[in-house]
Amino acid sequence: MKKKPQKQYPRLTHPLVRDGKGQLRRASWDEALERAAAGFRQASQTYGPDAFAMLSCARATNEMNYVAQKFTRVVMGTNNVDSCNRTCHAPSVAGLSAVFGSGGGTSSYEEVDHTDLIVMWGSNARFAHPIFFQHVLKGIRNGARMYAVDPRRTSTAEWAESWLGLNVGTDIPLAHAVGREIIHAGLVNRAFVERATTGFEEYAQLVEPWTLTAAAKVTGVPAAAIRELAHAYATAERAQLCWTLGITEHHNGTDNVRALINLSLLTGHVGRYGAGVQPLRGQNNVQGGGDMGAIPNKLPGFQDILDPVARVKFEQSWDTVIQPRYGKTLTEMFEAMETRELRAVYCIGENPAQSEADSEQAIRRLAALDHLVVQDIFLTKTAEMADVVLPATAAWAETDGTTTNSERRVQRVRAALVPPGEAREDIDIICAMAERLGHDWKFTDSQTVWNELRSLSPDHFGMTYDRLEEHQGLQWPCPDMEELPSSYLHGRLWETDPVRRGTPAAFGLVQHDPPVDLTDEEYPLRLTTGRRLDSYNTGVQSGSFASPMRRGEYIELCPEDAEAYGVSVGEEVRISSRRGSVTAPGWVDPALRPGLAFMTMHFPDEGDTNQLTIEANCPIAGTAEFKASAIRIEKLVPAWT
C-alpha cells in the first residue's frame, strides 16, 4: 500500500505580510513590525484592550512566556493570554489548585523509580511520554506493581500487572467504586483523612451507590479487577497515580482529575517521598508557560489576578495598572472571535487552526479576525492565515533560557545553532513590538528576564542561572538561595501542628456525566484520539523528518468491527461525525474493543481528525472533549462505478 506523503512545512527565514491581492509576500522587519503593531493599536483604540488576545507557546522558554504575558498585560492592557495548556492539561491545573493550592504534579520522576505501586490512568506514556516511561520501567524493575486504566490495551498497558479497560467517559464511576471499596474494606488512612482533609463524610456518601457491581455495569470493568486495584492502591506503602489526556480531554475533565485526587487523599498517597499524583505534561514547557503567567487568571508564580496584594506588587514593578479580572481562556477567545468581541490576536508558536476541536469552526473563527499576527519557526496552517508572519528562533536549539518539565524541574537551555536567514529571538521580537507601541524595554539577555521573574515569584527566587547549572535543574517551589527544594510537594499535610499543616485538602464531590456526543444508530462507534510514538501533535515539527515507524493517519478498529464493516487494512473509508467527515485508510488493532475506534491528530493535512471532534468544553478549565466523539464508517464507492 502506497503511503500519502506527509506535508513538509518550510522553515520561516524572513518576515511576511499580506499584500493587496491577499497573498503573503516577503517584507523587511521594519515593515512587518510596523504592520503588526498598527493592527494591534487600531483594535485596542477602536474596540478597547479586551479586543486583543495573546496565544503564548508551550514549546518556547520560560523567559519568552514571561515577556509575552507582560506584553499582554502592560502594553495591551488585558489579561487575555493563554496557550495550548487549555487544550490538554488545564483540568489538571484547575483540579490540583483547587485541592492543594498549586497546579503542579506533586512528585519527582525519580520517586517513580522507588515507589511500590504505579497507576497509569488514561495515559499511554510509553508512546506519549517516553522519557517518563523509562522511570516507570525502572520502578517495575525495582519491584513496583503497575496497573493501567485505559479504554485501549495500549503498549503501556502491556507492561501492567492488570489492565482495566473501561468504557470511554466512565472514569468517575470507576474512581468512585475504587474509593467505595477502600472505605468498605477498612483501608482508609484515617489519621491522614482526619488531620489533613475536609469533606470525607460527604465523599463517602457520594460514592456509596457505586458498588463493584454497579460500576462494572457502567464502566465495563469486571468487579474483581476494580476490587484488586482498590486493595493494591490502598495497601501499598507508596503509590504514584499518573494521568494524561485520557482524563483531561473531556467535557468534565476537571471533575475527572478531582475524582483521582480523592483516591490519593483517601489513602494518604500524597505529600510523601514516592507517594503522589502526577499529571504528565506532553510538551517541553507547557508547565512553565502557566508558571510564567501565560494564562488568563494567574500572574507569574501562580499568583492570582484577583489578589490585590499580588497585583500591586506587579503593578509597581511594571509601572502599570493590571485589570482586576480574569482574561479570556483559549476557548473563550475562539467564542469571542465568533461574536466579534475579539478583533486581533498575536499567536506565538501555536497552531490552533489544526489543534482545536471542530477544526472547521476554528478556521472560520480565525478568518473572522481583523488582524492576526503569527510568530513561529514554520509556516503552519495558522500562519498561512495571518496578516503578518514573523520568523522566530527554535527554543530548543537557537535560544538561551529555561524550561520547566512536568515534575516542576526548571532547567537551562542554550543556543547551539545560528538561526537561519533573518529569524530573530522571540523576546527580541516582542520587545521590538512593544517599542512601537510606546514601551521601551531593555532586556539585555534571557538572564535579565529571568532575574526580573525571580524578583516577583517567590517560588522561583532561589533559582539563579548559576544554581540551575550547578544542580542540573531545580524544582519549584525554591524560595531560598541556600537550601535545596524538596522533590515532592505538600509534605505540610503530614504536620501535627495545625498552623504548619495549613489549609486542608478538600475531597471533590463530583458526579458521573457521560460524554456529550452520544452514540446511536446513525453514529454507532465511539472515536477516541491520542498520540503515537513516531509523531508530535499536529505534525508540523515531526513531519519534517522520516521515521520507519510512521505510517500516516489511519482509522483503527478492533478485528470484530473491521469484519462487521467489511474494512480491510489499507482500505480507504469515510469517517463521519455530527460535525464533518474525513477519509482515512483502515487498520486493525486487537488492542481495541468492539465499538471503539482510534485516530491521532498528527496528520491533519491528509486526514484532519479534529474535523470530527466536538467542542464540548469543561466549564471549569475550558478543555474540549477530544476523547469522546460519536462516528460512523462508510465504505467508499469506487470512482469507476
Write the layout of secondary structure elements.
Blueprint (H helix, E strand, L loop, with lengths): L15 E3 L5 E3 L2 H19 L4 E4 L6 H14 L5 E2 L7 H11 L8 H5 L3 E5 L3 H4 L1 H12 L3 E5 L12 E3 L6 H14 L5 H7 E2 L1 H8 L4 H8 L3 H13 L3 E5 L1 H4 L4 H15 L8 E4 L6 H6 L6 E2 L3 E2 L3 H11 L11 H10 L4 E5 L3 H4 L3 H9 L3 E6 L11 E4 L9 E4 L4 E5 L12 H11 L9 H11 L8 H6 L3 E2 L22 H4 L3 E2 L18 E6 L24 E3 L1 H7 L6 E5 L4 E8 L7 E5 L13 E4 L6 E2 L3 E7 L6
Parallel strand pairs: 3-4, 3-13, 5-6, 5-9, 6-7, 8-19, 9-10, 13-14, 14-15, 20-24, 21-23
Antiparallel strand pairs: 1-2, 1-15, 11-12, 16-17, 17-18, 20-27, 22-23, 22-27, 25-26
Helix pairs in contact: 1-19, 2-19, 2-20, 3-13, 7-10, 7-11, 7-13, 10-11, 16-18
Structure, explained:
The chain is an alpha/beta fold. Helix content is 33%, strand content 17%. It contains 23 helices and 27 strands. A seven-stranded mixed β-sheet has the order 2-1-15-14-13-3-4, with helices on one face. Strands 21-23-22-27-20-24 form a six-stranded mixed β-sheet. Strands 7-6-5-9-10 form a five-stranded parallel β-sheet. Strand 3, helix 2 (62-75) and strand 4 (81-82) form a beta-alpha-beta unit. The model has no long low-confidence stretch (mean pLDDT 93).
